[in-house]
Amino acid sequence: MLLVASLLWGALASPDTGLNEVQLGKGQSCPVPRWIEHGQVEHLARYRCDPYYQLRSRGDGLYQCSQQHVWVNEAAGEVLPICEPVCGKPKNPARQVQRIIGGMMAAKDSFPWQGRLLSRHNHTAGATLISDQWLLTTGRNLYLGHSENSTLEEIAPTLRLFLGRETPAGAVERIVLHPEFPGAVDLALLKLKHKVPVGEAVMPICLAQQDYAKVGRVGFVSGWGWNVLLEHPKHLKYVLLPVADSSSCQAYYQAHPWQPLVNNHTFCVGLSELHESTCLGDAGSAFAIHDPEDDTWYAAGILSFDRSCLAAKYGVYVRVLSVLDWIKETMAAH
Q1: Which of 20, 223, 238, 298 has the fewest other C-beta atoms within 10 Å?
Q2: How far apart are CA 207 and CA 191, in angstroms?
Q3: Coiled-coil segments, which residues (predicted)?
Q4: What domain range includes position 149?
């Protein structure tokens, strides 16, 4: 006979406590199961994650009390599983039938990864949530209101971040600039001092694991950049934009007074069918692609050059796939 005791250990231990270190208090567990003649009782504990989180483990989350009175999983041993935030699964995803200069107002919780970054003197920029503690933005966004000689330690306390329904994300603990900034890659990682709870309104976007930035592919860009009145909107807006030919984009800017970074780490995006575009304050936002195969949203790029505002033909984005290893290594190291 097998008796399964499914225990909710999350309420009994801190995230840093091992299963074998948990001491149950009086009244916090079922009575010791009774033995039966010619049979045995196995004690099992199964881990489950809260909504909007998923279990990551070498095993299946099921732990058994061994003969040595130690909780073990067949594959993971004594190592506990981790509940990671779900990414790229908005409750109310944007649709292509809807249509940031002149863009459509985003529906509630359509872009839960969109952050609004305020720097010194209330300069507005975009940021993209990629985990419950890390965001991507551009390196140039961080220096808005600061001199180029300012240190990252000086800049970090001046940053204010808002997520979801304009909820403060808390203090920025660490800034990590891409090692090729500012010459080749306009990108930075922001680590929050505390993790943010993930749900309908706040959810990271998944990082692209393949090259979604194919010419003609349409992506969604949300943001708080200037609208047609050259002012920041009161509500989050978004626009659908097509990936453009990189060689045409490069040739265009070679003859243009503006010189954004256009190289192997970037891709270009054109105007919408209604001649809409991004504008000042949108940089740091994601070029979001919906993959119908797994019904998941991925960040294919991060907007770097947001000064087009219909005055230039192309927006320029840092290609996420090009910097994916750096992102993963940086997050793991800090």
Answers
A1: 20
A2: 16
A3: none
A4: 104-333
